[in-house]
Write a structure and sequence with these properties.
This protein is globular. The N and C termini lie close together (about 5 Å). It has helices at about 40-45, 55-60, 60-70, 85-90, 165-170, 190-195, 200-210, 225-240; strands at about 1-5, 20-25, 25-30, 50, 75-80, 115-120, 125, 130-135, 145-150, 155, 175-180, 215-220, 245, 250-254. The chain has one domain: Metallo-beta-lactamase, Chain A, CATH 3.60.15.10. Helix 8 (about 225-240) links the parallel strand 12 (about 215-220) and strand 13. By secondary structure, the protein is an alpha/beta fold. The mean pLDDT is about 100. The protein contains 8 helices and 14 strands. A 7-stranded mixed beta sheet has the order 6-5-4-3-2-1-14.
Length: about 250
């Protein structure tokens, strides 16, 4: 498996893009503004989009992607997400008001896009690439993802805050190599983090004490205006884990 980071910011501006990751050539993990860095040829190859949750910074480019390549493909793009997330996309985004319903275009028999509901702990196997939804604790129904090539695994937390159920599942992964986890705010703004159910450095440090596996740790979803401050606090609080800042265009092979 090869995972390329297209966007990993908690906002935009100055080169920052919101969450999107390209798995091999045909799978997106979230579809934030980072998708806009792909070429037309790369967009055409995307067959599947796995969505952590329905917030705009994670789904904003699904409409543009499908609108751009739908008529160039011979099969629909499949959007995989929790049933609650799919319902939100249907009702509030692909609703003929904000955007056309591409599950009905050009017709219901041959649509440009279709939905596939996922469930926690239920693995989707795509050509021996195993993708398993993990528990997340956010303001809307949400998941993280466990990506398993058979040789090694990568876990992406998605947007979340303290969550015992997540660590129970992560600690079962014997071939864990990489852990990508969020910390959206600095400690000074922990009141906002708590209300919006995001991590901040001191809380993340406490939470990582629940990790019983060894893994390379990468921090995502930093607010662009305070990224350096957040990472300084991360390094102070989590130094023993050797945390690294996730970067656009970074590639993980596992």
């Amino acid at each position: 498996m090869r995972l390329k980071i297209l966007g990993c910011g908690g906002g935009i501006g100055g080169g920052w893009q919101t969450t999107a990751m390209l798995l091999d050539e045909d799978i997106l993990i979230d579809a934030g503004t980072g998708v806009g860095s792909l070429s037309l040829d790369e967009l055409i190859k995307i067959d599947h989009i796995f969505v952590t949750h329905a917030h705009m910074d994670h789904v904003a480019f699904i409409p543009f992607l499908v609108d751009t390549v739908g008529f160039l493909r011979d099969k629909p793009v499949v959007v995989h997400a929790l049933r609650e997330t799919l319902n939100t996309l249907q009702e509030h985004l692909f609703n003929w008001q904000l955007w056309p319903d591409f599950t009905k275009i050009p017709n219901g028999d041959r649509p440009y896009m279709r939905y596939e509901a996922i469930r926690l702990a239920q693995t989707v196997d795509l050509d021996d690439r195993k993708i398993t939804p993990l528990p997340a604790n956010h303001t809307v129904p949400a998941v993280g993802f466990h990506l398993d090539s058979g040789r090694a695994s990568l876990v992406f937390s998605g947007d979340t805050t303290t969550n015992d159920a997540l660590w129970v599942e992560i600690n079962k992964i014997s071939n864990l190599k990489y852990l990508i986890i969020e910390s959206a705010f600095c400690d000074q703004r922990k009141d906002i983090a708590i209300r919006s159910k995001h991590f901040y450095p001191s809380l993340l440090a406490t939470e990582l004490e629940k990790l019983k596996r060894t893994a390379e740790l990468y921090i995502t979803h930093l607010k662009p205006s305070e990224a350096e401050k957040i990472m300084a606090e991360i390094n102070q609080s989590l130094g023993k884990f050797r945390p690294q800042r996730l970067e656009n265009q970074q590639v993980f092979e596992f």
